[in-house]
Design goal:
Largest sheet: 18 strands, antiparallel, barrel
Number of domains: 1
Order of helices and strands: HEEEEEEEEEEEEEEHEEEEHEE
Number of strands: 20
Number of helices: 3
CATH architecture: Beta Barrel
CATH class: Mainly Beta
Distance between the termini: 24 Å
Structural class: mainly beta
Shape: globular
Oligomer: single chain
CATH topology: Porin
Radius of gyration: 24 Å
Length: 425
């Protein structure tokens, strides 16, 4: 309390000098009990369900004036019971730590550890469902030119400080660069975003090479709104080289239609295609596997997360996703939703016996209910079912998982987001 009072007194004195400054201290605590028997992978026969409680605790600080913005977020992510009582375990980590410097009325430079979130999080998202989320060490030049918004970003990763040579990062890109362009037309009825992304990876260890291979991803994302309807379309192409020195020729396409039936009810229908390899036609020195980069796949490909990493989770075969979604809001504070996905491979893959499996993978149903308890707290519960087909057994992450065993997953989540302290004009 003494520290808080001293901090408030100091900041009050500063605000007396410059009333345009804003400082806010906030927190977030998320607790999520889960039951899993078929999450991520089909269950083996007679498998018992797993139960656990995970928690994220974050402390956020933000400061801004007419010249700069600062953001700081530290977090602890744990499963209840993984840290013994009375243990001295250093567990807090830096989720975000960035500064944004104004370079003029319509230009700013942001650098440091930060979340990258663009549009619907198809290619860049914070993956907030995960306890740790996702953030990048990067720098961005932001420009606003009339109705046009342009971001130029770059990142370079190393595992440690070195005196000579290079130290390639593990399980991460070595370099990343991107351009994001956005504009709204026709009284904001039509919105266009365009991406040009390049990321580089060290050669896979099996190649015994010091080369860095670069992959490129480019294309538009579009939204058009007319009355109660919104049409969405995305088309991305991917090219360059992967970490195995294979030539990439891949693409992603999606289209959906959202319709607001009433103030309480809306629905969505869509289709997505992620290219993959043909086991017969694809040559050994090429790949057609499209990678969704750094997006939030939990949002798009079913809440049971069977396809978080599409190239790996489909054994390179690619993915088709036919979906229909319904949302009903009986009150201003309560939402009920049902999502249904029908998954297929984009290409057949080979089973352990070297035979080609069917395209059809299965159907997933996701049911969720969300209630805003008060201004600071929200409760959500969900239940999901995976009705797998034989082809899904070939992709299974756990040996012995069978399509005849229905996958189930349920959770309850309480999210608390209080503002602890704020000073502003």
């Amino acid at each position: 309390m003494k520290f808080t009072f001293t901090l408030a007194l100091f900041l009050s004195a500063q605000f007396a000098v410059n009333a345009q400054q804003v400082f806010e201290l906030s927190a977030q605590v998320i607790s999520r009990p889960e039951m899993r028997r078929g999450y991520l992978t089909l269950p083996p026969p007679n498998a018992n369900a797993a139960f656990f409680v995970s928690q994220r605790s974050r402390l956020n600080a933000a400061f801004s004036n007419e010249k700069i913005k600062l953001g700081l977020s530290i977090q602890d992510v744990r499963v209840w019971g993984e840290e013994p009582q009375s243990a001295d375990v250093a567990s807090f980590g830096l989720h975000e730590g960035w500064a944004e410097v104004g370079l003029g009325k319509n230009t700013a430079f942001k650098f440091g550890r930060q979340e990258l979130v663009y549009d619907d999080q198809r290619l860049f998202g914070n993956n907030d469902w995960l306890g740790q989320g996702r953030s990048h060490d990067a720098a961005i030049l932001k420009m606003k030119i009339g109705k046009n918004a342009v971001h130029l970003g770059a990142a370079f990763n190393q595992t440690k400080e070195s005196l000579f040579g290079k130290s390639d990062p593990v399980d991460n890109y070595q370099g990343l660069g991107w351009l994001w362009y956005n504009r709204k037309f026709n009284q904001e009825k039509f919105e266009l975003s365009f991406y040009a992304v390049s990321d580089g990876f060290a050669a896979d260890g099996t190649l015994k090479s010091n080369k860095t291979f670069f992959r490129g991803t480019t294309g538009p994302l579009m939204h058009y709104t007319s009355g109660k309807m919104m049409a969405n379309a995305t088309l991305f192409g991917q090219f360059g080289k992967d970490a195995f020195d294979k030539t990439i020729t891949a693409f992603f396409a999606s289209a959906s239609l959202d319709y607001t039936v009433s103030k309480k009810f809306c629905t969505s229908l869509g289709y997505e295609y992620i290219s993959g390899n043909d086991p017969v036609r694809t040559k050994s020195n090429e790949t057609h596997q499209f990678n969704t980069l750094y997006g939030t796949n939990h949002k798009f490909y079913g809440y049971m997360d069977y396809f978080l990493n599409v190239p790996k989770d489909t054994k390179g075969g690619g993915l088709q996703n036919v979906f229909v979604k319904f949302k009903y809001s009986p009150s201003m504070r309560t939402d009920l939703a049902m999502n249904a996905h029908y998954f297929l491979l984009a290409n057949k893959v080979r089973s352990a016996s070297n035979s080609l499996v069917d395209l059809s993978l299965g159907t997933e149903l996701d049911l969720t209910a969300t209630h805003q308890v008060n201004a600071y707290a929200k409760a959500q519960c969900g239940f999901s079912v995976m009705l797998g087909q034989d082809a899904l057994e070939t992709l299974n992450k756990v040996p012995g998982g069978l399509a005849s065993e229905t996958g189930i997953w349920g959770y309850f989540m309480l999210i608390v987001n209080p503002s602890l302290f704020k000073l502003e004009k």
